[in-house]
């Protein structure tokens, strides 16, 4: 059981003026499950990386475990003190198979080879994944990879377990299993757990303490306050007033016949007939990891699917890749996946060169840049923009391309309230002016009302149109 | 045979063959590699691939050399067989050696610093992810009206950016799993390096020397 104490920690990223963590002091109680929450980009990951010793501390003694400074703990003992589980499941392994990765971690701790098999089996058994022991890590789903990552931490017997948004792409049943295991690690083995997530929903019955990170400082709520906070918290409500069932007059643009989506051996969406309608703005909702992004990748021919998919009546596999890519575009969830150039201006010029330059005249683009607060960044290197600025630029680039069907995967992710208002206004105007078909996945639910006309909900591996018949 | 010694043997033979012009030794090496591959159940498809690719390149090389220039038939034969020696011996090595066993052997027997050994292994295991990333970049470019080919610099720029990002994540994960550069580690599997390996290594090298000596004009 280790108590994690942070004393007046200030951390500023190189080449930034404002510190992301500002004279922060907090104590995470030993043997308890604390949920660290705060807005995206608020410094949660930075704090966890500092506690884990992955980012060098700006001053010694700022992070202590049971009073012992992190900097004084011998490197060989660190993994037994603190270990971290990362957001991206697939890039946290060195070896090929589950058992080899476990061996690798134990070898690093200089565990006697004779003692390894028992430790490995015990850890796998605790998480309930003995059947995955000899499987190749790259062939596992994201949820299984996170379970393996947790099993490794169990095998290393680390006192403090840090988790950085571990459920970002994990389906609800796996999330539940992982949460149960984490609580068991707290109560049965006295581990200290700090989990970072920007979304509070689905944690109330699991966590002991809520730690709120706001403007560089953390406030740790007592168990009582935490209960109150959770009781007062209501998940953001989706309010759509223009949504109806699709009427028979609508034109179908994309038609799936017995369309099913699987990831490896796991079925995400059961085969079903599914239509997407032209010139409408469709919102797709559903739990994390339920298959929304995978469906989008299938729609743009980047992923496998079962059944057939037709665009304007023709099977998409029979269309030329080049032509299809110009008619059905995808705004990727990760903004940097979309960029091909170095500066903001180059990127916009590329879009104008191949996109709808008649509508997106130089003046209009300049006006939109001003609205999005990007006008001063024209010559800046894209990769040095903040994630919110990247997201706004990415949206603008894809709107200028103006494909007939534009798929938007979390276009509002990580944007502040003011930016969301601007982005939604621009999206609505452009969609109406150019009569575009928009299909959108979003966990950000407020501000969508003006735009959305159809709503698909993914639940129990099935997509259904919500709303009343017209 | 011990993987590190096997690697050393193959590199040594390949180096010698590059300088010696004895086609009989080349043919013998090809035959031995082929027999060993067959004994190790290398698939027929793989063998065909290992034969057709060098066949194309060595044929074109020999053809162009015989059309222009004054190469003797002996030299052409040496050039033709030399390419097969490289490919077959390389094939024999990769088809009979597990990357993980090689890494462990390089770390334990050849005393290669563990950060190189495991860094290489982590990168090797990321291959499927790299392939998926390339497909995504190409699709993203096509949606913007640009077609990227395998020779397009933009493709490499984006792949390198992605790889740099992954390498940071991997390094953090290795640290989190207790890996420390230069720190002592235990070994779950020990790769044996026994007298028999050295005898085999020496014997093979000696045989090649004898062959080269006898074959020299």
UniProtKB/TrEMBL annotation, chain A:
Subcellular location: Cell membrane
Domain of life from the UniProt record: Bacteria
Membrane topology: Peripheral membrane protein
Native species: Levilactobacillus koreensis
Keywords associated with the record: ATP-binding, Cell membrane, Membrane, Nucleotide-binding, Translocase, Transport
UniProt GO cellular component terms: ATP-binding cassette (ABC) transporter complex
PROSITE patterns for this protein: ABC_TRANSPORTER_1, ABC_TRANSPORTER_2
MF terms in GO: ATP binding; ATP hydrolysis activity; ATPase-coupled transmembrane transporter activity
Keyword Acetylation: no
Protein name: ABC transporter ATP-binding protein
InterPro entries reported in the protein's UniProt record: AAA+_ATPase (IPR003593), ABC_transporter-like_ATP-bd (IPR003439), ABC_transporter-like_CS (IPR017871), ABC_transpr_CbiO/EcfA_su (IPR015856), ECF_ABC_transporter_ATP-bd (IPR050095), P-loop_NTPase (IPR027417)
Family of this protein: Belongs to the ABC transporter superfamily.
Keyword Nucleotide-binding: yes
Domain ABC transporter stretches: 4-240, 254-470
Lineage of the organism: Bacteria, Bacillati, Bacillota, Bacilli, Lactobacillales
From TrEMBL, chain B:
Gene Ontology cellular-component annotations: plasma membrane
Protein name: ABC transporter permease
Keyword Transmembrane: yes
Primary location group: membrane
Transmembrane segments: 20-40, 47-65, 71-94, 147-166, 198-216
Entries under Pfam families matching the protein: CbiQ (PF02361)
Subcellular location: Membrane
Keyword tags: Membrane, Transmembrane, Transmembrane helix
Topology relative to the membrane: Multi-pass membrane protein
Residues annotated as signal peptide: none
């Amino acid at each position: 059981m280790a108590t994690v104490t942070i004393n007046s920690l200030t951390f500023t990223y190189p080449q930034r003026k404002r510190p992301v963590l500002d004279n922060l002091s907090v104590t995470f109680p030993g043997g308890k499950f604390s949920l660290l929450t705060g807005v995206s980009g608020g410094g949660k990951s930075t704090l966890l990386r500092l506690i884990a010793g992955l980012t060098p501390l700006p001053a010694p003694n700022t992070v202590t475990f049971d009073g012992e400074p992190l900097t004084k703990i011998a490197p060989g003992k660190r993994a037994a003190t603190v270990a971290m589980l990362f957001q991206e499941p697939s890039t946290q392994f060195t070896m090929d198979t589950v058992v080899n990765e476990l061996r690798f971690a134990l070898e690093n701790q200089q565990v006697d080879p004779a003692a390894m098999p028992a430790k490995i089996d015990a850890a796998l058994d605790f998480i309930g994944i003995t059947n995955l022991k000899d499987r190749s890590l790259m062939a596992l789903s994201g949820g299984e990879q996170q379970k393996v990552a947790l099993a490794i931490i169990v095998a290393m017997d680390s006192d403090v377990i840090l988790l950085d948004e571990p459920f970002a792409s994990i389906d609800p049943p796996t999330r539940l299993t992982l949460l149960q295991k984490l609580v068991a690690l707290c109560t049965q083995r006295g581990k200290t757990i700090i989990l970072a997530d920007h979304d509070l929903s689905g944690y109330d019955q699991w966590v002991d303490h809520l730690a709120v990170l706001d403007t560089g400082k953390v406030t740790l709520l007592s168990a009582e306050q935490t209960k109150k906070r959770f009781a007062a918290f209501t998940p953001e409500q989706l309010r759509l007033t223009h949504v109806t069932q699709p009427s028979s007059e609508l034109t179908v643009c994309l038609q799936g016949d017995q369309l099913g989506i699987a990831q490896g051996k796991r079925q995400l969406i059961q085969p079903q007939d599914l239509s997407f309608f032209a010139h409408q703005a469709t919102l797709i909702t559903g739990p994390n990891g339920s298959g929304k992004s995978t469906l989008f990748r299938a729609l743009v021919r980047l992923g496998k699917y079962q059944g057939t998919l037709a665009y304007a009546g023709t099977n998409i596999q029979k269309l030329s890749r080049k032509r299809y890519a110009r008619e059905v575009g995808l705004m990727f969830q990760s903004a940097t996946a979309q960029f091909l150039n170095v500066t903001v201006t180059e990127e916009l010029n590329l879009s104008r060169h191949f996109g709808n330059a008649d509508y997106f005249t130089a003046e209009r683009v300049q006006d939109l840049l001003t609205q999005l607060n990007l006008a001063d960044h024209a010559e800046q290197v894209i990769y040095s923009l903040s994630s919110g600025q990247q997201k706004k630029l990415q949206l603008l680039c894809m709107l200028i391309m103006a494909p007939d069907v534009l798929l938007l995967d979390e276009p509002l992710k990580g944007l502040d309230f003011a930016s969301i208002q601007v982005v939604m206004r621009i999206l609505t105007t452009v969609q109406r002016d150019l009569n575009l078909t928009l299909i959108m996945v979003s966990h950000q639910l407020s501000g969508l009302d003006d735009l959305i006309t159809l709503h698909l909900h993914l639940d129990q591996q099935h997509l259904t149109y919500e709303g009343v018949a017209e | 045979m011990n993987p590190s010694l096997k690697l050393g043997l193959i590199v040594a033979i390949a180096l010698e063959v590059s300088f010696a012009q004895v086609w009989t030794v080349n043919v013998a090496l090809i035959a031995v590699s082929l027999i060993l591959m067959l004994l190790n159940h290398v698939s027929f498809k793989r063998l065909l691939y290992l034969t057709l690719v060098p066949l194309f390149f060595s044929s074109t090389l020999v053809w162009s050399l015989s059309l222009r220039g004054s190469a003797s038939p002996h030299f052409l034969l040496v050039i033709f067989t030399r390419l097969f020696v490289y490919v077959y011996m390389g094939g024999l090595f990769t088809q009979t050696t597990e990357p993980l066993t090689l890494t462990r052997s390089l770390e334990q027997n050849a005393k290669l610093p563990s950060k190189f050994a495991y860094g290489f292994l982590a990168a090797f295991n990321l291959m499927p992810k790299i392939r998926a990333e390339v497909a995504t970049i190409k699709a993203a470019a096509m949606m913007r009206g640009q077609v990227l080919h395998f020779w397009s610099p933009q493709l490499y720029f984006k792949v390198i950016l992605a790889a740099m990002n992954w390498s940071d994540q991997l390094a953090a994960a290795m640290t989190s799993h207790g890996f420390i550069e230069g720190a002592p580690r235990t070994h779950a599997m020990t790769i044996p390096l026994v007298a028999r390996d050295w005898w085999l290594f020496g014997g093979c090298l000696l045989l090649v020397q004898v062959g080269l000596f006898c074959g020299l004009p």
